[in-house]
Every structure is written in C-alpha cells, then in structure tokens.
C-alpha cells in the first residue's frame, strides 16, 4: 500500500517518453469540451515528441452507441486529432481488467466483500439518521478465506488506505490533498465478475504506456481512487508508476453558467456542417480556451505545438464565446486557399441554387473566392454570396433591388449597355474608366449608376464591388442580365 504522504511513487514516469490519451465515452457526439481535452493531449504529446492515443470507453453498454463512436472519430479527424495508433476499445479488454483485480485480490490489496445491497442500504440510512458521513466499513476487509460464505456472491473492493493523506501534484491544479479517511473501499469487480470503470481506466492507461493523464477536472476525485489501484499494482509487480495528472477546468458559457446548447456549444459536427466553420478556426479557438501565449489570438498549428505547455493552462474555468469563434473563422476563411474554399462551398451552393453545376461552375466559383471571402464569416455566408453568379436569367429580384429599377435608372442602364457593348478588354481598370466617363457625361455620381447596375446584375442591393461583379460574370452574361431589366 502507498505510504501515507508520498506524492510520486518510485517508478515515476518523469523521464519516460510522453504518452497521452483521449478517452471519450461514446454516449453522445464529440462536444466542445471533449474536443479541447483531445487537443490538449495531442499538443502535449507533439510538443514533447511523444505519442497521443485514443481509447473508446465503451463499458457502459446501455449508453454506448456505434453512431457516437463514428461521430467522435469523425470530429477528431476533422480537427486533425486522430490518434497515433489504432484506438483501444475498453470493453474488449474486460478479461484483462478482471485479471488485474484478481492479482490484487491474491496479494491482499483487494478483498471479497459479501455485504449485500440491503445491508449497505441499512447502514447508509443509519449514518444519515445519525447525521454522520457514510463510509463502507466492511467487516470483510480483513476476513480470512475460511470465513468466506459458500454460495454467496461477492464484489471485489480495494483496501483503500485509511490513515494519512494522499497528495496529487497536478500539473494544472497544483498540489491537491485528500485525507485518506475520505477514500472508500470502492468496487473493482462487480458481483457478476465484470470490472468497474475505475479499474478499467487504470489498467488501460498502464497497458497503453500512458505517462500523462490530461482530462476534465470532473475526474479529480477519480484520480485519488485510481491511484490506489496504481500503487497496489506497483507494489505487486513494479512498473506501475503514478501517472502525471493534469486536470483541466470545465468550459462555461459567456454568462458564467454551465455550458449548454443555449450558448452555441454544440457537437463538433454541428460546427462543421450547420455552422460552416473551418477546422483550423475551431482548432485555434479551442486552443485559446483556457490556454494562451501572451496576447496572441491567431496561432497556427505549428506555433501551438512549439509553445504549448500544460502548466500554462488556466486554473479557472474558461468561457465559451461564440462571437470570438466566428471572428476567428472569418480570419481563416480569408487565409484559406480559394480552390479548397470553392470545394467546401459547392455543396452548400447547390442547395441554394439548383442552377449551380459543380463541374461547370467550379472555375468561376474559385475565381470569385478572393472577392467573396473578404465579406464572409462562415461557409454558409460564402455560399449565399455566390448564388448570384449562378442564378438563371431572368434573375429573381429582391424587393429592394426591384425598387432601384425605376424609369430614370433604366435610362441610365440603357447608356451603360451601349458603352459596355463597345468595351473590348473587359478588365476591371477598363470597366472602371468606362463607367466613370458615363457618370461624368450624365453629371451624376458613380453610385447612381452602380446601384441599379448591381440590382440588374445580382438581383440584390449588396454584392462585391460592381467592377468585380462585371469581371466575374463576363461580358455576355453581364449584358444579357442588364438587358433583361430593360425589356
Ligand atoms: N471516459 C471519460 C469521459 O469521457 C474520461 C476518463 C478519463 O479521461 O480518464 O469523461
């Protein structure tokens, strides 16, 4: 059994190559908190030239689903956080977990407990009535084999230390100390012989060579119990050093309340599919959620790997801020390669504009990206703003655009058509010169021409710059669209 106050057992993993893991329970999709835990594990491993592994904790058979497993892998891969090796599935390792329990049982670190549910319930009630904290003081803890009742099922409980205290030197939280008298003799094998979650985590971490356990701080209490198992096994066979723990604070909403859908905190799949975010934006956002490097807001993957240290993770809860995420996304959209963006926008555009043919339209869509992406915060906005390029003539007119097409403005457009027909090069510079000349001749501002022209070319009152619109649509299409509004 671990001595009362030691913090790190003999075989500390301090000098071993770093191995981290992300161990989601597949009971729902990959949410923002899980993705951030994965990211910090990935970064810590990369920063230290170590390994980052995945483990699917699917021992809760009733709540684990294949769809959730799929969604978790899908989300991780999208963020570039797939594991360095094949993932481990926890349930498939039940026999190994049970084997460790039996080793501890034989070595006297665990015991057969024959207390029945009824006995436990009665004791719990009594403690409550007497207003004292309930602790499982099982008389079976020190029973000898000759005292074991025949034909009665039992659970296997750890002999948790009762004296002294245990301190965990947590890399994020600092030193956390618990009085050992608060640790109960928790169960490692149920009466049907199946291992508990507490046992499975420890055995898997050991067998996977995990040196650093980086996870949500809702697991701090588990860490003290898990250490009881680790230290028992280290005494029995050696080679079970205390893992280095780093418990990262939860994420709260901008209002400080526990994070929920209401705050825009969704599954990673929703960020990708419904919100049209880029993975590098989500990556950058998650990174800054509880960790920072000076005032840097935009941090690339490579910089993150270079700078990341788990010791710099904030102790306090971080706040999820959807606006910040969207701002970052706008930045990364502007940075993104145009052909890649066009590929991401195409399926969204096809939904909005049935006239869009991805094969024929990809070239134009790609060429349009530089002027469209400066005004877009997400892929949906990009798709919406590119609809006009592929809309079928005669263009449907938005109400405000139709209002701009008065008799007066039609007369202006008639002049524009005549001048543009004579236009040879169809360059932005040439078009600009031509329209400016018309404005001068008519003694009006360029805006007076641009407004109805924009309406006729796009069916909208907002669009990229009018010369960009003309250049992208080309001469024939531009003239045809204007003529449609003159007829
Ligand atoms: N499966 C646990 C969870 O999803 C994580 C356990 C661990 O990281 O040790 O919360």
Q: How would you characterize this protein structure?
A:
The protein is mainly alpha-helical. It has 4 domains: 7-251, 3-Layer(aba) Sandwich (Rossmann fold); 261-334, Glutamyl-trna Synthetase, Domain 2 (Glutamyl-tRNA Synthetase, domain 2, Orthogonal Bundle); 337-390; 399-486, Orthogonal Bundle (Arc Repressor Mutant, subunit A), CATH 1.10.10.350. Helices cover 48% and strands 10% of the residues. It has 19 helices and 12 strands. It has a 3-stranded parallel sheet. Strands 4-5-8 form a 3-stranded antiparallel sheet. Helix 3 (94-106) packs across helix 5 (197-207), helix 11 crosses helix 13 and helix 15 (407-421) runs antiparallel to helix 19. It is elongated, with a radius of gyration of 32 Å. It binds glutamic acid. Glutamic acid (GLU) binds at residues 23-25, 57, 201, 215, 219.
CATH topology of the largest domain: Rossmann fold
- Mean pLDDT across all amino acids: 94
CATH homologous superfamily placement of the largest domain: HUPs
Quaternary structure state of the chains depicted: single chain
Strand content: 5-15%
In total, how many beta strands?
12
Total helix count?
A: 19
Largest sheet: 3 strands, parallel
How many structural domains can be distinguished in the coordinates?
Answer: 4
- Overall geometry comes to elongated
CATH architecture of the largest domain: 3-Layer(aba) Sandwich
Structural class: mainly alpha
Q: End-to-end span in angstroms?
A: 92 Å
CATH class of the largest domain: Alpha Beta
